[in-house]
């Protein structure tokens, strides 16, 4: 520990936000690894905010044991399972005095030593360091579904959300403050962080296998999570309704031309009666889809307004008399 740090600058705190759901077998090993990693940076104070997301096993008791030994540990326990994204949000809300906050899983899939590399980048002026998986040791199915999800998200979302990035990231205090202004219920945090802006950089890492226990993200939850990523950041599906309507209406016009052509050029082949029904059916359903799309585009606006996101985030304001500039 350098003496100068102690005397000149006030010590800064780095907060860890650690969501826990049924991790009784992992918490001990995880916390030991985390303590070992963070002990390499004695120039910072650390705060460990564990959020127990309504675990059904003995996770809470394990966490309270950690707290009894070390008062840098904070334990929040939910009244029921609210889901990983909400647990992380609660942790972020609770780590207001930290200069930087690191969010990571507690199953040892996100290695604690990588979080120190994040701190190095942050000291170099990066506001958000997100851990990007260079490799993943997941099943072929999980890999394929993740690939498909990012492919769709890339094409539809209004902002660029980095690929193969989970919620393992470091955020500067000012980013945390901005992220906490987004209070939407259906949360897709990595999208929100991308939306907030600031200087963001990727840090490549190898994601380990889960230490013990099972993933709290079964397929059902993964699909609904993917849906909130897409629906939360895009109103494109609503706009597609109109496009489909226009295509079908155009088809009805082509069909009408075809029918008229048959009537004029080879009347012996024309079957009476079907033209009105056939063309009418296409035209009407096309018109209906266009109208639904019109309603959809208003609905999209209502949706965006009800999300009530902040209009902007300011990174710097230089104003007033020179000495008071911040
Ligand atoms: N988690 C949580 N609430 C849930 C599910 C998971 O807080 O409803 C936590 C879990 O304890 C872990 C992290 O979120 O620390 C990531 O979950 P998991 O490992 O199950 O997801 P995967 O790594 O399989 O995507
Ligand atoms: Mg995991």
Q: Order of strands in the sheet with the most strands? A: 3-2-1-4-6-5-7
Fill in the CATH topology of the largest domain.
Spore Coat Polysaccharide Biosynthesis Protein SpsA, Chain A
> How far from one another are the termini?
30 Å
- Radius of gyration (CA) equals 27 Å
CATH class group of the largest domain: Alpha Beta
Describe the fold and architecture.
The protein has helices at 3-7, 24-38, 59-69, 84-94, 112-123, 140-156, 173-179, 189-196, 219-232, 236-265, 274-307, and strands spanning 12-20, 44-52, 73-77, 100-103, 128-136, 165-172, 200-207. β2, α3 (59-69) and β3 form a beta-alpha-beta unit. The protein has 326 residues and is α/β, with parallel strands linked by helices. Strands 3-2-1-4-6-5-7 form a seven-stranded mixed sheet, with helices on both faces. The radius of gyration is 27 Å and the shape is elongated. The protein has two domains: 12-218 and 310-318, Alpha-Beta Complex (Spore Coat Polysaccharide Biosynthesis Protein SpsA, Chain A); 236-307. The mean pLDDT is 87. It starts with a helix and ends in a 19-residue tail after the last helix. It is 50% helix and 16% strand. The structure holds uridine-5'-diphosphate and magnesium ion.
């Amino acid at each position: 520990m350098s003496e100068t740090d102690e005397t000149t600058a006030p010590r800064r705190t780095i907060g860890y936000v650690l969501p826990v759901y049924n991790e009784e077998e992992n918490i001990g090993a995880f916390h030991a690894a985390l303590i070992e990693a963070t002990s390499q940076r004695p120039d910072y104070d650390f705060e460990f905010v564990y959020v127990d997301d309504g675990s059904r096993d003995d996770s809470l008791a394990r966490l309270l044991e950690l707290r009894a030994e070390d008062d840098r540990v904070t334990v929040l326990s939910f009244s029921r399972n609210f889901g990983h994204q909400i647990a992380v949000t609660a942790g972020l809300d609770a780590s207001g005095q930290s200069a930087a906050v690191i969010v990571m899983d507690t199953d040892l899939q996100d290695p604690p030593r990588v979080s120190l590399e994040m701190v190095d980048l942050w000291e170099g002026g990066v506001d958000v360091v997100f851990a990007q998986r260079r490799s993943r040791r997941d099943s072929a199915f999980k890999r394929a579904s993740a690939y498909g999800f990012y492919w769709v998200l890339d094409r539809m979302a209004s902002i660029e959300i980095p690929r193969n990035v989970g919620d393992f990231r470091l955020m500067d205090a000012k980013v945390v403050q901005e992220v906490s202004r987004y209070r939407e219920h259906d949360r897709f945090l990595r999208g929100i962080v991308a939306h907030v802006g600031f200087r963001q950089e990727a840090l490549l890492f190898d994601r380990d296998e889960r230490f013990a226990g099972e993933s709290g993200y079964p397929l059902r939850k993964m699909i609904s999570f993917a849906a909130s990523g897409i629906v939360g950041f895009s109103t494109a599906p609503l706009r597609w309704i109109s496009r489909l309507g226009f295509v079908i209406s155009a088809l009805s016009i082509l069909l009408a031309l075809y029918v008229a052509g048959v009537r004029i050029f080879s009347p012996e082949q024309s079957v009476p009666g079907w033209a009105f029904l056939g063309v009418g059916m296409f035209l009407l359903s096309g018109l209906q889809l266009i109208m639904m799309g019109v309603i959809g585009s208003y609905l999209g606006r209502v949706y965006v307004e009800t999300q009530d996101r902040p209009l902007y985030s300011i990174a710097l304001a230089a104003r007033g008399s020179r000495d008071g500039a911040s």
